[in-house]
Specification:
mainly alpha, two-stranded antiparallel ribbon, 8% strand, elongated
Amino acid sequence: MSELTINTTQNVSINFKSAAVGERILASFLDILIKLAYVIVIFYIFFYWLGISKILSSMDNWSAMAICLVFFMPALIYSLVLESIFEGQTIGKKITKIKVVKLDGYQASFGDYLIRWLFRIVENNLMGGAIGLIFIILNSKNQRLGDMAAGTAIITLKNNITINSTILEEIDGSYVPNYPMVIKLSDNDIRIIKETFLLAQTNGDYETIKKLRIKIENVTGIKNQSGNEADFLRTILKDYSYYTQEM
């Protein structure tokens, strides 16, 4: 199971785990069962009980095929429609907690789901679907051909993604900010500050922490009131979270 880093449109980097091959196979199997159940019900009600099959037998082949296509079309476009409605999930994907996402951080569009659906038709008819499985196994992001063409991947939603994965800091309702001028910084500035600060803390790099404090003071006009440079940076991060969440 590989890790994917997706940069959101707010310049926030979030790490996800790509869905395992077993999860994707299980989701596909569940979706196949649902489509099969639909086909059986339609066939029994309309073709067997209501006797449409007898009517079709008296028609020319093209007309009969057109009518059959109308009845069974929902099964054919099942994944396309559901992924478009449920933002990257079919019923099988919802049960297994996996989802289609765009690698560029944007929400996948109908066109992206259409590309995946069209390629699925090709993949399922090449070596009985084995070609798609081979690409998933060999690709570092576990993408099949349709994913590569659409710029998508399938992630698992079972990750324990915390607020630490974003630029935001955890603050409670009673938090009182200290530095209103922190809003001069951008999301990207805060992301860089947080990543650099956490790395410097881990490595005991106090010189880098000092440089961060000086840079923030020069850019924003804020002056460190705490006396402790690490506490100052923590406050900057919390204040930014406070003011941006209030906007």
